[in-house]
Design goal:
The structure is a homodimer of 317-residue chains. The first copy, chain A, has helices spanning 12-28, 37-44, 51-65, 81-91, 96-101, 103-112, 119-122, 124-133, 147-164, 203-211, 232-240, 245-254, 259-283, 289-314, and strands at 2-4, 32-35, 73-76, 139-142, 172-175. By secondary structure, chain A is mainly alpha-helical. In chain A, helix 8 (124-133) packs across helix 9, helix 10 packs antiparallel against helix 13 (259-283) and helix 11 packs across helix 13. Chain A is built from 14 helices and 5 strands. The model of chain A has no long low-confidence stretch (mean pLDDT 94). A 3-stranded parallel sheet of chain A has the order 1-2-3. A two-stranded parallel sheet of chain A has the order 4-5. The two termini of chain A are 28 Å apart. The A-B interface holds A 37-38, 41-42, 45-46, 48-49, 51-52, 78, 81-85, 87-97, 99, 117-123, 126-127, 163-164, 312, 315-317 and B 37-38, 41-42, 45-46, 48-49, 51-52, 78, 81-85, 87-97, 99, 117-123, 126-127, 163-164, 312, 315-317.
Chain lengths: 317, 317
């Protein structure tokens, strides 16, 4: 089980990170992928109108990346009310102090401002646990920043099972550390930094973005020796052009390779890598997203309903 | 809209207080009466097995008191998952600070112990608001101890409507101050003080309980002058035997009325008052409770579903 907040078009960082792992997982596991629209509300509650359109763009990128809705269950959090039901039921046994100990709460308020300090945001790690527990998911890929959330969730499951008998499954983390994908400016690729190569970009947009990238400022023209270790273009070569990296590194340092040619080669490779995905993307009719999500959510609910029934049995409700 | 936590058999205090008001309300309004089993979990989560049987006894008392399930909607909170759905949706806009300001939270932790300081208990006033708002209830009877909860709930509704447009109804309180019903020991009648006359008691149990009541300790035998103002038997006369109060008061003070005779008269009046209710109670087949609650909950859900649809529309989900 894994999920993403609907934030609109995905970029190369998502593709190399979570999405490639999801594709692998969905061939190995009975996988559930969540459009986390309730989670999106925790921080975007003042502008929820962006969430709906973002959902469609995100799901199209999932499909383009190779997630097959016939194999994996794609569902929308708000269309599975059993998640909310479980949230309220489990809220009764979760000490406020446990939530206060989750480090991300104070970090995020410091980063995003006091307006996010809502009851819902405070309970975010519990809602995440419900996403997982309602499907009895046993394996969850987590990045380093989510380890404390999953540890909290496992504690909640243990408490429930201790109080009412074995009912819920304690999810195991699969630590997933991806190489950080550099953006056009060398910082981590991120929508909010406006430094991303989107999956949905066309080839000429990609070329234009790559042309505008800053390289080693001491390398003004071909012939000048470059320092690949500080160059974001080189970092992207490592990602999309691995077998050519030793030669590029040598020719950059010697000065034999100019930045223009280096960027053109990267453009070719990156567009080549993204081409089959973009072709799939272009072939997807946006009108199919709704039915896929509805069908997946219905499938998800049939599993979730059984969990709720078992939880209520355990609680003797 | 009103509700009670399922705590088992109800007593005279419930009857004279909430239940008589509910009967009046249900002839005047489209009334919703909630078996608040999720609320019961906030403090009883360690022993939830008592909640189920308590539900049936409580509903039988409601019916005996004159609540007509054909006129009023009797429903169980945990059977209306839309309440939990609304709870999660609204949680996103409720500042933690608002909940911290509700005075009952700290009071109850002081009274009941730190184990009740859970995320669910912290959100109790929000869950109460959801009980009300999901049915678009416009009138809520509140005792003095619940005024701060309703004020909080009205604030949440105003915030929602301000952020997303008019969607939810701001409930108006009907302040209900009942005469406090004294228990057998003169303290407020309460199950937890073990000083209650239950609706379900038979007449001889009622007689036995009243015989054991303490009266004015200075009035040892008939002839001794009594002080009605400190006597719990006298207080119950005011409730069940109003037209005879002046004479009883005079004869108690003069000593002409002995405590044994006084208690016997009270027993007759109280049993007489409770007789029709107890007869209705005895005629109720406990097996009918389940279907009544299921049917009422289904009716409640059809209203609640529409509210959730409107709330999601407002949130553009």
């Amino acid at each position: 089980m894994s999920g993403m907040r609907p934030t609109g078009r995905l970029h190369l960082g998502h593709l190399v990170g979570a999405l490639s792992q999801w594709v692998a997982f969905s061939s190995e596991y009975d996988a559930y992928f969540e459009i986390a629209d309730l989670h999106a509300l925790t921080t975007a509650y003042e502008h929820p109108e962006a969430v709906g359109p973002a959902r469609d763009q995100m799901v199209i990128d999932w499909l383009a990346a190779g997630i097959d809705p016939a194999r994996a269950t794609i569902f929308q959090q708000s269309l599975v009310p059993e998640i909310s039901e479980l949230h309220v039921l489990l809220s009764m046994i979760v000490p406020v102090a446990w939530l206060q100990r989750v480090p991300t709460y104070k970090d995020q308020i410091a980063a995003l401002g006091p307006h996010v300090a809502t009851y819902g945001f405070f309970g975010y790690p519990l809602l995440q646990l419900c996403d997982i527990a309602v499907f009895r998911a046993d394996t969850v890929p987590v990045g380093r920043d989510q380890v404390s959330h999953l540890e909290f969730g496992r504690e909640v499951v243990r408490r429930f099972n201790h109080l009412y008998g074995p009912t819920l499954i304690e999810p195991q983390p699969t630590l997933s550390e991806f190489p950080e994908v550099p953006g056009l400016d060398g910082r981590k690729m991120s929508k909010s930094y406006d430094n991303a190569i989107d999956i949905a970009d066309d080839e000429s947009t990609t070329a234009k973005k790559l042309r505008s990238m800053i390289t080693d400022p001491q390398k003004i023209r071909r012939g000048d020796p470059g320092r690949p270790e500080i160059c974001p273009v080189f970092a992207l070569h490592k990602l999309a052009n691995a077998e050519r990296v030793p030669e590029i590194e040598e020719n950059c340092r010697s000065g034999a390779l100019g930045c223009v040619a280096c960027k053109m080669e990267l453009t070719d490779r990156l567009n080549g890598m993204l081409r089959p995905i973009r072709e799939r993307r272009a072939a997807i009719d946006p009108a199919t997203v709704g039915p896929i999500v509805e069908e997946g959510s219905a499938r998800a609910r049939s599993v979730a309903k059984q969990t709720i029934a078992d939880v209520k049995d355990a609680l003797k409700l």
